[in-house]
Specification:
single chain, mainly alpha, globular
């Protein structure tokens, strides 16, 4: 009897095949959920935004309620909504102003692409007549496409109306309802806790909220610091559009890893197009040093083990959610993956998946990391 026959006969291979089937079904389920979420973008995005915002804002609402008498409890909800509206208005206003500045500079950027291409007799001698024509055509098409994409995005941001306003109003309405029903939902969870394991879910939601707040506070602080340092370095070289670079750097900081690369590459490309390669090289060197100090030294030490997500999973989640919801998915990727990590770690059968998502080696280490305040 062969080894394979012995193994098959003893039944040892059965559980292995079962595990493989389970993992395949799990992957297929993820793909199906991704397709469903993409088809339900108009509903899923506002709901997820509202849930995450509610988790972050709930402690502020609770504190305001404790400070106010019973007859003025409604003022707590009003205060939270006014604060949220102010943050959104400031954020959207800055983006619109930056987009308008980009639109005003697009003609200069479009003409600058041609200066990067060899031309004249020198180009013909270097590339040959036919190759020079192809090179010029390729560069012109590439430059035109890039400018068109930037122009379309800037115009869309500068004229934020219609669907954007509708989605924003829907998100605010959902947040208002969710925050106002916070105590009701707490009572529901307590009523259902007997024998259903809801107590663990309540603790998981508290952990998710704490990690999200920690993530947002630190990413905001790091974004502000990195934006200021970028602006100072660009100002030293006499680069314009400083407010635009500051806004883009600050916003893209909320996209871990990839966001900082994009934020540093865009001003370098702009300098290369509008000035010369020596200046672009100096700008790139300074921005690279700033990114290394802030992104690879300061940021990890501020966050510590609070996030507990694997860097590989952060990037994979960015690609996954970005492919489903575009730029919105890229911004939601890390909060969603962090929430899934905590929730999966609460469900016994999904703890192995939570460990795979984390940056820890053992389930015990993951529990310890998530228990830290």
């Amino acid at each position: 009897m062969t080894t394979y026959e012995k193994t098959a006969g003893s039944g040892v291979a059965g559980p292995d095949r079962k595990d493989v089937v389970i993992w395949i079904l799990g992957i297929l389920l993820v793909i199906a959920i991704g397709a469903a979420l993409r088809a339900m973008t108009a509903v899923a995005v506002p709901v997820i935004f509202a849930v995450l915002i509610t988790l972050v804002m709930a402690p502020l609402h609770a504190r305001l309620e404790r400070m106010l008498p019973d007859w003025a409890k409604l003022l707590a909800l009003l205060g939270v909504m006014v604060l949220l509206l102010g943050i959104i208005a400031l954020f959207v206003g800055a983006l619109v102003f930056a987009a308008e500045r980009v639109l005003a500079k697009l003609p200069d950027v479009s003409g600058g692409f041609q200066s990067l291409l060899p031309s004249g007799e020198g180009a013909s001698a270097l590339l040959g007549g036919r190759v020079q024509e192809l090179w010029s055509s390729l560069g012109s098409n590439l430059g035109g496409r890039l400018v068109d994409q930037i122009s379309g995005l800037a115009q869309a941001i500068a004229g934020m109306t219609g669907a954007f306003v509708t989605t924003l109003v829907l998100i605010l309405f959902l947040v208002m309802l969710a925050v106002s029903e916070r105590s009701v939902w707490r009572g529901k969870m307590k009523s259902l806790s007997s024998g259903a394991g809801i107590e663990g879910w309540a603790e998981a939601l508290n952990t998710v909220a704490a990690r999200l707040r920690r993530f947002l506070v630190i990413r905001t602080a790091v974004g502000l610091l990195q934006a200021v340092l970028y602006v100072v370095w660009l100002w030293y070289f006499g680069i314009d559009l400083l407010f635009v670079w500051a806004i883009l750097t600050f916003v893209l900081t909320y996209i871990p890893n990839l966001g900082s690369i994009i934020a540093g590459s865009m001003p370098v490309l702009y300098v290369l197009v509008t000035k010369d390669w020596q200046t672009a090289l100096g700008v790139a060197a300074g921005l690279f040093v700033i990114e290394q100090v802030v992104g690879n030294y300061l940021d990890p030490r501020l966050l510590g083990r609070q996030i507990a997500l694997s860097p590989f999973i952060i990037l994979a989640g960015l690609l996954f959610w970005g492919s489903i919801w575009g730029a919105v998915g890229a911004f939601l990727a890390t909060p969603i993956m962090l929430s899934l990590l905590v929730i999966f770690n609460t469900v016994p059968h999904l703890r192995p998946v939570a460990l795979l998502l984390s940056d820890q080696k053992t389930p015990e280490a993951l529990d310890e990391a998530l228990a830290q305040e």
